[in-house]
Amino acid sequence: MLTRRNFAARFGLAAATARLLPEMAYAQRAAINGSDLPKDMVWLNANENPAGPPPVSLAAMQQALPTSGRYHYQEFREIYATIAKSEDLSSNQIVTGCGSSEVLHTSVDAFTSSTRPLISVSPAYEGPIELARALGRPVILTKLREDYTADVRMLAEEADKAHGGLIYVCNPNNPTSAITTAKEIDWLVANLPANTTLLVDEAYLHFGESPDLKTALPYVRQGKDVIVTRTFSKIYGMAGLRVGFAAARPDIIERLTPLRMNVISIVSARAVVAALGDRENIVRERRASLGHTRRELCAWLREHNVKFIEPQANFIMIDVGRNAREFINTMPRMGVAPGRPFPPLDNLLRVTIGTDPEMAKFRDVFWKVYKT
User: Fold this and answer.
1) Residue 18 above 70 pLDDT?
2) Which of 205, 266, 292, 328 is a Cys-bridge partner for 72, taking CB atoms 3.0 to 4.6 Å apart?
3) Which segments of the chain are extended strands (E)?
4) Which run of H or E residues covers position 61?
5) pLDDT in tens, 24-65
6) What is the CATH number of domain 55-277?
7) For the domain 30-47+280-370, what is the CATH code?
8) Domain locations in the chain?
9) Cα angle vertex 309, ends 371, 207, to 5°?
């Protein structure tokens, strides 16, 4: 197992720094400056779930805290088995990590090299892309199509030209909130070039309502060259608890496991196990609640003739008609923090879906800036 003592020596200082870079470095990269920000700030910049951890998880954590002075290593075999079983997988088909960020990073560590590039779209979640660059691995970025979706044929073509690599698809994509359809994922898996692995990031999958959006986990069960990553940060509202996992066939998991940092927090693990015990209700209720709030925002934008990318995640990209940095710089001083810039989509503003009162405040502040 990789430890803190040998991590930096094994991967080098630059690589270690990249792997340990927290998600906050991405999520808080908006131009929010100054110490005089409103105390009742509405934070819509990090794709967090305002519902927070489910009540069953809060109760489980409260019970776990008094015993958190111990590592609890002996419990993790059963904990991992519970996580795996929740997706109809066996324990040797998953590896856990600090959110999905860690398992995304270990996938890049293991399946890119000086001759095997990371291949993705732009823009996409930056973590895997920036890590590959920090490791000195080649990175190939393809353009989104006019509807802001990934061109899977172009991704496969680039992998073929490179004689292999790691194709990264975030589905739904961050920051666009657009999906890669099940039909397109089917095509990509069926046409993966030799020496190519597909990495599908499904952090936001549970928020999608499109019938064309499906998980890639069946390909894991079929033993394909596919890695699927999941997180408990989003639909389960456990962003600060940092639990995620990668699913793949056993020989792939064997390559990822030595690269993980350690076991996850026992407090977080107990929260996850408790949530999985009521998984169907939690996911159904939260998807419905988020979907209702999201539809209300979309309806309001249509009424005001404001364009946006049709969202399938817990955030939306709004076309503000001019450089979005104006909104990013101005709105926080008015009590609402939107997402960071995502070049080259300079006129698009990413906004996390918050509570109904939070979105009411967002609409008020957004419209004041939009009309100036």
Assistant:
1) no
2) 266
3) 42-43, 94-97, 118-122, 139-143, 165-170, 196-201, 226-231, 244-247, 315-319, 336-337, 348-352
4) helix 55-64
5) 444 444 445 556 778 889 999 999 999 999 999 999 999 999
6) 3.40.640.10
7) 3.90.1150.10
8) 30-47+280-370, 55-277
9) 120
